[in-house]
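Hi R.,

Here's the chain you asked about this morning:
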Amino acid sequence: MESKNLADFPRPVHHRIPNFKGAPRAAEHFPHLQAFQMARTIKVNPDAPQKNARFFVLESKKTLLVPTPRLRTGLFNKIIPPLGATKDILRKCATSQGVKNYSTPVGLDSRVLVDLVVVGSVAVSEKGWRIGKGEGYADLEYAMMVSMGAVNQGTPVVTIVHDCQVVDIPEVLLEDHDLTVDYILTPTRVIVTGCERPKPMGIMWSKISWEMLEKIPVLRNLRSQEKQAGKDVTLQDEHWRPPESRSQQQVLLSPVRRSLDVVRLEKGPIQDKDVPANSEAPLGTSVYVGNLPRETRVSELKRALRELGATPTRLTWQGPQGRAFLHYPDPALAQQAIACLQGLHLGGNTVRVALARQQR
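And here is the predicted structure, written out as tokens:
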């Protein structure tokens, strides 16, 4: 997709659900599906190529649920547009920033029923076999929805991809926890897969590690519920236990610690001594963004921040030095932004992200 210039922002598309030129055209098939027309509540993934699908759900006055990125703060959010919202406002609600601004969390006890599921894909076959970006979040989201009674084997699953992403996938690559799809929408085709391979029947706890359990609080809650119900919730590495001396704060921040080597958890804020100091904001609320190519424009960075749901209240641009500082209202939002920006590429460079040091 990169070599043939089929990819669209954010680029490069490595290590993410790839956005592509023609994604809006592919999404135009979505409202014409009978499954869409019959559905009242639709879950759509938060990635860029499915933005128009989210808009069509809102425009049709159906209930839109969007998973929280990497399931950090829950399973999904319900998007609630303002009263009398115009099409332009609905389009904003469908963006990652809009999802953040116009959403309310959906709890495990909400008894929500999802009629249609939309997932992103890196590759998919006409048989309905799917490959994601390799982290298993879409599969886990679906399994969690099964566990809470939100979906069942008859709930249709749709993916929206470029034609070049429809490829032959060997069945040997599939495992029991892998999610399959029933409809594939491309800019030129609607493929009804007729897939008969069973979808996940719930969370396979033997595939879940303690590390993943630490990263996803809602997963811990589900495990506790299923354990009380008498189900086998033995983990992949059941005999290992996280050190008892860790505080709850350390457990919650552990995904950030593992994903960014320069960020360390200490008694004070997470900082990197090699990161330039910043004196424009209270301690722990500014994020350093470095390794920016000289030709990068501030508008490119702002666009990436909007797409990733990490828009700051203020941005200090230091383009000639290849860096910028993002200012947030409180340390928690700064930490969340660091997690969201991991792996971001701009102009061919992998951006470096860390909490800015406070200048004395």
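One quick note: The longest strand covers residues 63-67.

Cheers,
M.
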